[in-house]
Amino acid sequence: MTFDDTFEVIKRYAILAYGTLGTVGAVGLLVLGSLLVGLSIAVLVEGFGLVDVFSEELSTGATMISAIVLAVVGLFCLGVASEGPLGRGRRLVGFQLWEIGIGRTLAAFVTGLIGLLIYGMLSGPLEGLPGPVIKGAEGIRAVSVAGMTVMPLLGVPLSLATRLAPEPYLWVREAEVPVSFVVWAVSAMVILT
């Protein structure tokens, strides 16, 4: 194997890694952003006394600040995901389905690991803050654990299965990212509760 051949192989798999990590990372950010924005809405609804979501009683100021912090972080995650490479994985031309599957599995694990590292850095400094903010940090952990466990086992195979849709159901092939999002979001919510 010559140097040029080795370089081409490395270049090919670097493109695969970049494409899969970008897509999976963006889906993870979409799940986290949706979770945090939803939690922010739940805090506001509880602040108005319509439902009882959290066990602790918060002052009006703590409720508003918690809702704003969760909303800002959640919207930031959604913004980064929307500006990122979401959908790039569908355009990975020239790769076999098994290569994309392995790439997405590794990308989901790496994304989850990065999220757990972020949770580890945040968990200490957030102690003593209101419960909703702590629950938001727990959301980061839940999304990360779901990315490391459920996505490689269920999310990646289901999303890749959409590529195998027969001719009359070509619209199913476009559901690759939504399938990943739904599996990741549901599993993160189950882990969080």
Characteristic key phrases:
mainly alpha
Please characterize this protein's 3D structure.
With 193 residues, the chain is mostly helical. The protein has one domain. 75% of the residues lie in helices and 0% in strands. The chain has helices at residues 3-47, 60-83, 97-123, 131-161, 176-192. Helix 1 (3-47) crosses helix 3 (97-123) and helix 1 packs across helix 4. It is elongated, with a radius of gyration of 19 Å.
Report the principal-axis shape. elongated
* Distance from first to last alpha carbon: 53 Å
What's the gyration radius in Å? 19 Å
Number of helices: 5
Report low-confidence residues grouped into runs of 5 or more: none
Largest sheet: none
Which structural class best describes the helix and strand composition?
mainly alpha
| DSSP summary, beta strand count | 0
Helix content class: over 70%
Question: Secondary-structure blueprint of this entry?
Answer:
Blueprint: H1 3-47, H2 60-83, H3 97-123, H4 131-161, H5 176-192
TL;DR of this structure?
The protein is mainly α and 193 residues long. Helices cover 75% and strands 0% of the residues. It starts with a helix and ends with a helix.
